[in-house]
Amino acid sequence: MKKFVALIAVAAMCLLLLCACSGGKTTVKVIDIQLSSEEYAFAVNPNDAELLTKVNTFLKEIKENGKFDEICNHYFGDGKPVEIESAAEDSSKDQLIVVTEPGFAPFEYTSGSKYLGIDMEMAKLLADYLGKELVIKAIEFDSIFQTLNTNGADIGMAGITVNESRKLLVKFSDTYYNAAQKIIVKSDDTTFDDCKTKEDVDKLLNGDKKLKIGVQSGTTGQFYVEGSEDFGFEKIANAEAVGFTNGTSAVTAMANGDVDYVIIDEAPAAAIAKAFNAMNG
Asked: Do residues 204 and 191 lie in contact, with contact meaning Cβ atoms separated by under 8 Å?
């Protein structure tokens, strides 16, 4: 995994950790085994075929001209994240309304009133490409699809994995990022230390012990725990998925003993663990 050079999810994330954590020095680690293979795309208002076509052209262009790689370097390399501002929504203006859940670094997060992340930088580029003013609306992740389906926004940009159920509500753009689920545990937890493969991890997860596993509600991590035909996941035996608004809250709950593990997307897992350990190490 490529190393982050900047502390991702600084302001709001660190404040949440500071307030929510108990007084101990609990740190966490990410088990470096991919539990799934998935692809991210943008979710587009299903009633706007013209926008979908333009989004796909935009994605093709920024991949070919190196702009996408440049943005990724802001979070996975030696570049510097760019702060993005949202305009106020105004029906009299020509605006691009983007919905997101900004607790998913390095794809979307906040610092004060500003938005940062791979998706948010692409949102700004897309708005400029379309000649529109950018409006970013923060909502819960599992509300994104219904919001788009009922014309409440133009596009969802939130590290969204493509699946068949979501296709019933939105139109997906071409994919732009390959992702995977990983498990986060307390640093002193040796349960998975000898695991070499996904099957090794699954065998331990499916043991006799009853588990509570923290997930971000409505995301692939939840489906991994509960099982999903769309994703091809079998339910983890004796495990309960405990949903949180974002991954940071789930990791905080694990540190406080409220859940046993956390399962979340690979890049956010690394960002959250780094921020958490910086506060508690």
From this structure: yes
